[in-house]
Target: phosphoribosylformylglycinamidine cyclo-ligase
Amino acid sequence: MVTSVNPNTELSRCFASSLRPSYSKPNSSQTQLCRLSSGSLSNTFSGLSMAPSTEFSRSRRIFSLSKNESGERASGHGGLTYKDAGVDIDAGSELVRRIAKMAPGIGGFGGLYPLGDSYLVAGTDGVGTKLKLAFDTGIHETIGIDLVAMSVNDIVTSGAKPLFFLDYFATSRLDVDLAEKVVKGIVDGCQQSDCTLLGGETAEMPDFYADGEYDLSGFAVGIVKKDSVIDGKNIVIGDVLIGLPSSGVHSNGFSLVRRVLAHSGLSLKDQLPGEAITLGEALMAPTVIYVKQVLDIISKGGVKGVAHITGGGFTDNIPRVFPKGLGAVIYNGSWEILPVFKWIQEVGRIEEAEMMRTFNMGIGMVLVVSKEASHRILEDGNGAYKAYRIGEVVRGEGVSYS
Model:
């Protein structure tokens, strides 16, 4: 159960102690906590949702290599893969396929629900094993930004303006000071995306999580007029792919990142080779929230499709916005590959195809636009923000690189 508040209330959190569904059998030692800010309150009930983890929710499959007798990948150099790190994209895809049989119509980056002349657009996510690095570095102030970003960046791909966000914070023993840091990050993320933190839940579950650790998830709901939905249906051959830069790894691929870090012999306190920041700082850089920028670009016309580059990288995410029979060619060298990705690839001896399927590689959002709109967007990108022409739409499905 979640308690909703008026839109002017910055934060409310309610943690149910009753009214549980009959199928729920909570551990008797589980404590549910409630923090409420002032304002008028009305009880509402949250629906049941089912979401794969951030690490694989947006990927269909992964490029993997067979093992040789020594157990290394038979790639000629024993390079690491996402599957080596414990993330099985194929299993995630199979689960999504089975869910689709029970709930036809799911898919895309956000779910659309008709409401008069508009659609409500919803998305849910977590931050994956980036949390492990938060525990190791002690950087908890920005992980909430990541949490909000993963949902609002999804729903803005439909052209929807986020309305509100709700979060779930679970821990073995509640550390109020630590939890406050996390929630402050969530508030910051909501401010960046111009939406309201409407409520959430904090669960204290002894013996379920390791001491000092916690888990996060959340969801966002936005709205878009039915005649303004960005759905990719009118994409044609020759349309241009515009890339908006990322801040780093964002919130996907960290199981592989952590495996690379272990192989490197370096610690999170060591400098990123050749750079003036530590590995911990580079890897914990918060996910860019693209909401205001993308909505501004959409408002000027010419945007036909938008892809959030998360798990699955370029290879699996960009095709999701294309009509059947169309794909993309990506121009190699058309944007700046961030140093952190170069380090990950070099230390992990990771093949290019694996990098492009796992990470955002420095581009966190891709817009498919008309040629005319591309000129304006790129010119604007010389001022208020950066933007790169990274490819074009071609005949034939999938993504190729040239």
Remarks:
- The first strand starts at residue 2 and ends at 5.
- The mean pLDDT is 81.
- The radius of gyration is 21 Å.
